[in-house]
Amino acid sequence: MAHILIVDDDETMRDALAEVVRDLGHSVCLAANGTVALELVERERERVNAMFLDLRMPGIDGLEVLRRLRERPGAPTVAVLTAHAMASNTIEAMRLGAFDHLTKPIGRNDLAQVLERMLASIVEPQPSAASVEPETLIGSSEAMRTVQKTIGVVADSDATVLITGETGTGKEVVARAIHEHGQRNRGPFVAVNCAAIPPDLLESELFGHTRGAFTGASAEREGAFRQAEHGTLFLDEIGDMGMAMQAKILRALQERVVTPVGGRPVPVQVRVIAATHRDLMRGVREGSFREDLYYRLHVVPIHLPPLSARISDIVPLAEHFLARAGTRKRLSADAAAHLIRYGWPGNVRELKNAMERVAVMVRGEYIHAIDLAFLQSERSGADPLLDWPDEDLPSALARLEEMLIRRALVHSNNNRTDAARRLNVNRQLLYAKLKRYGIEVSDEKGGEGEEGGEGMR
């Protein structure tokens, strides 16, 4: 049972609201104006859980009450009620921290739903998100573990790395991870988006220029290669670079020498990491990308899969982005299921933007599926097992676990040893899970396949 404060100068409205709140099983205290409301909050601050606040009242109006409550630690959750809703007071009320802005008269069901959401937003204080790393690689899917292992292997070398993947998959995050974990981490990390710079300026941006080299060159410019000396140069969207510029990049990579516009060759000590969302091999076949440059870049390839192929990483990434947004909001089970069902055409960048949006827009502590309604399109060709109804988190995780086991069995042709290897679990645990979920495996399609030792953990 919660304790609800109702603030309204209209006695009939106060009594009507109080009756509904009591019928819902909560206790009520009443205030006829803002001054009394503030006194009650101060006197009963440990008891008042939520407040329904009229906007227009004599003396201290609702907006002023909100302003004063905002200055107090542990203030109750407030829903504003008004018979005169206008853009100005709606915006100001939400800016001042109102949970919602409601128009009178309000129906019984609507009031019950709002109160339920208000009370659901009241939770124990959570640890501050200030210590969360600004950027980091998140993901325990098999694809991301492969990426992480490759980063560890190549970090200390000077080998050129080519990162491929759709737009928004996190290619620059991977490039920074290589730099930060490598022996060049004391040097600078310089990122250049080759698609964002006009072709006639790209040479100067990368290699620099001397004073007076062309009209407008009033001072000497080092260029990105020299700015990244003893560090890492990240060439993003290198697939959008013109053929003439490709030849100059190839020479710089082969000879470790750059020539500023209007100047003389200068040796450089820099590691180059390139990235693209394009199919460079196709570009080679079509004549839009140099084959020799492709192989010079493709020394160590790292491919980032789309987010829709990294189901197990979606929720951890979402929680990471919520923490980075400086919020204590959490995902409910139905919200997590909604995120998993969505196809994510914009990949990790779209997920990050979505979490930043709900961090601002959702007033409650928990984010629900309804708060993510702007993510409309469902995953194309989704496995029906993913389309689970609203349920608690253990049930949702069990469904996901069952789906992954069934998928591993299909891919391994019902060979349980191979399925266990794909799932990265030992056979005994897999057998227990098969029994738990009532999954029968026919020996006709591969049986146990247990010959030889597995050497599994």
From TrEMBL:
Family annotation (SMART domains): AAA (SM00382), REC (SM00448)
Cited SUPFAM superfamilies: CheY-like, Homeodomain-like, P-loop containing nucleoside triphosphate hydrolases
Sigma-54 factor interaction domain span: 137-360
InterPro entries registered for this protein in UniProt: AAA+_ATPase, AAA_lid_NorR, CheY-like_superfamily, Homeodomain-like_sf, HTH_Fis, P-loop_NTPase, Sig_transdc_resp-reg_receiver, Sigma_54_int
Xref: CDD domains: AAA (cd00009)
Pfam families: AAA_lid_14 (PF25601), HTH_8 (PF02954), Response_reg (PF00072), Sigma54_activat (PF00158)
Annotated positions of the 4-aspartylphosphate modification: 54
Location of the Response regulatory domain: 3-119
Keywords carried by this UniProt record: ATP-binding, Nucleotide-binding, Phosphoprotein, Transcription, Transcription regulation
Any one GO molecular-function label of the UniProt entry: ATP binding
Protein name: Sigma-54-dependent Fis family transcriptional regulator
Record organism: Paraburkholderia pallida
